[in-house]
Specification:
Elements lengths: L12 H26 L4 H9 L10 H31 L8 H20 L5 H20 L13 H21 L3 H18 L2 H22 L4 H17 L18 H17 L9 H22 L4 H26 L2 H22 L4 H20 L2 H22 L7 H16 L10 H21 L5 H19 L2 H24 L3 H34 L1
Helix pairs in contact: 3-4, 3-5, 4-5, 5-6, 5-7, 6-7, 7-8, 7-9, 8-9, 8-10, 9-10, 9-11, 10-11, 10-12, 11-12, 11-13, 12-13, 13-14, 14-15, 14-16, 15-17, 16-17, 17-18, 18-19, 19-20
Length: about 550
């Protein structure tokens, strides 16, 4: 073969550049002819050919482009899906006059044929190869399922052997899907795994399989960055467990709730922990995203919702234990999301679900109205953790829930006892916690602290009015006012002085109204004398304090 020697003028000057360009164009034309002769064309080139206005079949407008896309791509894919569905129905049809091995052999033959055809079309028709391969994987699973199901005369009577074969099929499908790095084929293979757990009709096999599949989903999500895979996994995981809870009606059983074995609730908490780890591992503090937050919402809501639903059918003692465990898990997850990512929304979601689980455990453990008091004191725990989480959303939500609990207490109890003062005490302590750690919160105003203080200003006198004898109401209110003054001196906060003044004015109005209408002379004397003396003393204190301030300013 003669060696090619470029001309000298190709190595210098504009003439050389022109000849180089001419030579490259000539080579490109030769390569194009060789590709055309060998029929080497890729899917992307086919798509570009259809979308180009100058080449190929000469498409000139968008309408014709859409027509060719539908005709070449969409119809082929829809046709493959329809064909696979038809063959699947063919496989599960209960043939009575044919031997049971016949549909199975036909199924495996069709599966291998479609798989081989997809391999043959990998170059010329690459845009349908994925659908053909997905169809072959589907038929492979359905054919193996036909060995035991869908017929009166089964080839394999032993269900454990059938499960082993189905597991092998799922593993093969997963390996093929992962080799192609196809998220959609992986979803399909994982779906077959959940289906195997359902048809097993064995509780422990189902729980273990679902836990293993959920862990695999999280691993694949982290490894391949398939973000939406975890959403699909959350739906399949809790849906599969729910199907077990209603007695697996897909196998023809009567729908009814089942809670045995109780360890199934532990597995629900494990599912929740596994899916939460999928959003914790490999995500930095500045990488909070809508996708991860939505995953947290789905996981927390579906996990605790299913646990709550199952515990409705259990005895209270056992339900309390599992709600407490759920509370601990969700609060720990909230802490992890805060420390690892400083995620505002995922932290809020898991924290609020943890508090809800704790509230449910309290309601189940204690009788009414005692659980209202425990719910009230729980509010302090929520405020404390909200400060650590730096979450204004938790603070606001907790205050709303706190007020609703107090209103429900008033409605359901009908009468107020001395323990109802707890609501006022909790409000004062909550306000103090918020003021103490206000720099940790994103709350830049005094609104939430003022809301708690106003709540205490109302609740404490109201509770005392209903809880103690009539003759001691005004005395108790005066004692509360003095306590507020003491707090203002100790904490050096003028808000408590205003609370003391308002409480004294409220006491004054109460004494005058009741004093003029009451027939108890002793009460009148004691109330007016004590109130008058206290108010005079306080007035003198204010006067002295004001004079001291003026003297300091003059000096």
């Amino acid at each position: 073969m003669q060696e090619f020697v470029p001309p000298e003028n190709m190595l210098s000057g504009n003439a050389g550049n022109d000849e180089i360009i001419s030579l490259l164009k000539n080579l490109e034309q030769r390569v194009a002819k060789i590709e055309s002769y060998l029929n080497l064309i890729t899917q992307s080139e086919q798509v570009n050919e259809l979308s180009s206005e100058e080449g190929g079949i000469g498409i000139q407008d968008k309408e014709e482009q859409l027509e060719y896309r539908i005709g070449q791509f969409w119809l082929a894919k829809a046709g493959i899906v329809a064909l696979i569905i038809g063959i699947a129905f063919f496989l599960i049809f209960p043939y009575k006059k044919l031997p049971p091995v016949f549909p199975v052999l036909i199924g495996y033959l069709i599966t291998s044929s479609i798989f081989g055809f997809s391999y043959y079309c990998r170059k010329n028709f690459s845009y349908i190869v994925g659908y053909l391969l997905g169809g072959s994987l589907t038929l492979f699973y359905f054919t193996t399922l036909r060995l035991h199901f869908f017929s009166r005369q089964t080839l394999i009577e032993n269900i454990p052997i059938e499960l082993v074969l189905l597991v092998i099929v799922v593993i093969i499908n997963l390996l093929i899907s992962l080799k192609r790095r196809s998220a959609y084929l992986t979803l399909l293979s994982i779906t077959f795994g959940y289906a195997t757990a359902i048809v097993s009709d064995d509780s422990y096999f189902l729980f273990a399989s679902v836990l293993l599949l959920s862990s695999l989903i999280v691993f694949l999500k982290i490894k391949y960055k398939w973000e939406y895979l975890i959403h699909y996994g959350i739906i399949l995981t809790y849906l599969t467990h729910f199907i077990w809870f209603i007695n697996n009606p897909l196998l023809g059983k009567t729908i009814q709730t089942t809670t045995s074995p109780e360890i199934n609730l532990i597995f629900i908490l494990l599912y929740a922990a596994v899916f939460a780890s999928g959003n914790l591992i490999g995500v930095g503090k500045s990488e909070e995203s809508i996708i991860n937050n939505f995953s947290s919402f789905m996981n927390a809501l579906a996990g605790y919702g299913l646990l709550f639903l199952i515990t409705l059918s259990m005895d209270k003692e056992s339900a309390v234990v599992y709600h407490l465990l759920a509370s601990i898990l969700f609060v720990i997850l909230a802490m992890l999301f805060w420390t690892k990512q400083e995620s505002k929304y995922s932290t809020f979601i898991y924290a609020m679900l943890g508090y809800l689980a704790l509230s449910t455990a309290i309601i189940l453990q204690f009788n009414t109205p005692n659980f209202f008091i425990w719910l009230c004191w729980q509010s302090l725990l929520v405020v404390s953790t909200a400060v650590w989480f730096r979450s204004k959303y938790i603070v606001l939500a907790n205050f709303i829930i706190y007020v609703l609990i107090f209103i429900a207490y008033l409605i359901m109890e009908g009468k107020i006892s001395i323990v109802s003062i707890s609501y006022g005490v909790v409000a004062l302590v909550s306000a103090r916690i918020l003021n103490w750690k206000k720099d940790r919160l994103s709350l830049k105003t005094e609104q939430m602290r003022n809301a708690y203080l106003l709540t205490a200003l109302f609740i404490i006198p109201y509770s005392l009015y209903h809880a103690i004898p009539e003759g001691w109401v005004s005395i108790s209110w005066i004692a509360v006012a003095i306590l507020y003054y003491a707090m203002s001196l100790i904490l050096k906060n003028k808000k408590y002085r205003w609370m003391a003044l308002l409480t004294l004015l409220l006491t004054l109005g109460y004494v005058f109204i009741l004093g003029l209408t009451s027939s108890d002379t002793t009460y009148k004397i004691v109330s007016f004398v004590v109130l008058g003396a206290v108010m005079i003393i306080i007035s003198l204190v204010y006067t002295r304090y004001r004079k001291s301030i003026k003297s300091i300013l003059k000096s």
